[in-house]
Design a protein that fits this description.
globular; binds pyridoxal-5'-phosphate; 10 strands; alpha/beta; single chain; 14 helices; Aspartate Aminotransferase, domain 2; Aspartate Aminotransferase, domain 1
Length: 380
């Protein structure tokens, strides 16, 4: 039987043609395609400005630097995320401080963060896990109360909204990923949205060594000396990436709806598996990005053995995520024990991610569920 892949991207022939057009032209790096992509992304997210970058990690790093966060500062975040959320804080020279997540949703809660703010706290970095947004209105209140920077790891949520708020609308910046398995992708890539042209100009300089002229102006105009005006990094998106991404934006909402329908089918088909739990579904009126479909296996089964067997039976699956605080680097550097953040730890021990992408068929979802049920009932 044919393997059901964990993920398949949705690049169309038109997307590929547009990227090829760029590659057949003379100019490949940050230029008109990136500018067009930024304009369209900002419009899509109803935000004043978007900046194209090479990764979400780089985006978060830049936002922290822009706001002067570094050595001696603490940034509150979640242990239930991909390591990049925490490593971006470390890259800035600051210390990630974890606050445990809600056991039902896996999300960071504003009231828990409020209670954890210390004199060293300078910023809050919540994550819109698996596509569901955190309570941004609540986080904006906590950030205002303590005078903290609020930035969002929106790698899982381009398409969502909660309480009439979209990513980037109540924070200094929201950061996105276009990594290979994201809802739109160019292999590797990222962006941020921010609130003012001044901020966007700072990010455009910082993504390119902090120099005064970008490659596009050097290419289209006569040579003029450029200067280095500030410390910068090398995080600029190129025109090939932007050409691949530009028209994927048009399809985001249709694909989001398709993933929602598939998630509903998973919830229906797995409802009768004793001990298997889903994380809380989005509230009415809330729009999740439905980025990943994760289930929590019955506590008594060996999750890693289930993964091995499910894969052997031709179904791709993954773990998103083992809690960050139990990963070796964090354990050794900070002396964390699993029980320090028990809710994140428990989710990380029980979770398995199943295929979820627009091209997945209902028949494939049924086969994934039948496979999982078989394996789980045999391993009890
Ligand atoms: C929650 C989360 N944050 C950050 C990242 C990092 O994104 P990038 O690979 O674009 O740096 C990812 C990527 O998978 C992610 O899932």
């Amino acid at each position: 039987m044919e393997k059901i892949e964990f993920f398949k991207h949705n690049l169309t022939e038109e997307d590929l043609d547009r990227a090829c057009q760029v590659m057949r032209s003379t100019f490949l790096t940050t230029g008109p395609q990136v500018a067009a992509f930024e304009k369209k992304l900002a419009q899509y997210l109803d935000s004043p400005e978007a900046v194209g970058l090479t990764s979400c990690t780089g985006a978060m790093h830049l936002v922290l630097l822009k706001h002067g966060i570094g050595e001696g500062d603490e940034v509150i975040t979640t242990p239930m995320t991909f390591v990049a959320t925490a490593t971006a804080i470390l890259e800035a020279g600051a210390t990630p401080v974890f606050v445990d997540v809600c056991p039902q949703s896996g999300l960071l809660l504003p009231e828990a963060v409020d209670a954890a703010v210390s004199p060293k706290t300078r910023a809050i970095l919540p994550v819109h896990l698996y596509g569901r947004m955190v309570d941004m209105r609540g986080f904006a209140r906590v950030a205002a109360k303590h005078g903290l920077l609020l930035l969002e790891d929106a790698a899982h949520c381009l398409e969502g909204s909660r309480d009439q708020v979209r990513p980037g609308q109540l924070s200094a910046a929201a950061c996105f990923s276009f990594y290979a398995t994201k809802s739109m992708t160019c292999g590797e890539g990222g962006a941020l949205v921010c609130r003012s042209p001044e901020d966007a100009a700072w990010y455009r300089s910082a993504r390119h060594h902090g120099i005064s002229k970008n490659a596009s102006s050097r290419y289209t105009q006569k040579y003029e000396h450029w200067d280095m005006e500030m410390m910068g990094w090398k995080y600029n998106m190129d025109d090939i990436q932007a050409a691949l991404l530009l028209h994927q934006i048009d399809r985001l909402d249709t694909y989001r709806q398709r993933r929602q329908d598939l998630e509903n089918l998973y919830r229906e088909l797995l409802a009768d598996v004793a001990g298997l739990d889903f994380l809380e579904a989005p509230a009415p009126g809330e729009l999740s990005g439905h980025h990943l479909l994760t289930v929590l296996l019955p506590p008594q089964v060996d999750r890693d053995e289930v993964i091995r067997l499910v894969q052997e039976m031709g179904v791709g699956c993954a773990v998103n995520y083992r809690a960050v605080h139990v990963l070796r680097y964090f354990r050794e550097r900070y002396g964390y024990r699993p029980e320090d953040f028990p809710n994140a730890y428990q989710i990380g021990q029980r979770t398995i991610s199943l295929p979820l992408y627009p091209r997945l068929t209902e028949a494939e979802v049924t086969r994934v569920c039948d496979t999982l049920k078989k394996v789980v009932s045999a391993s009890k």
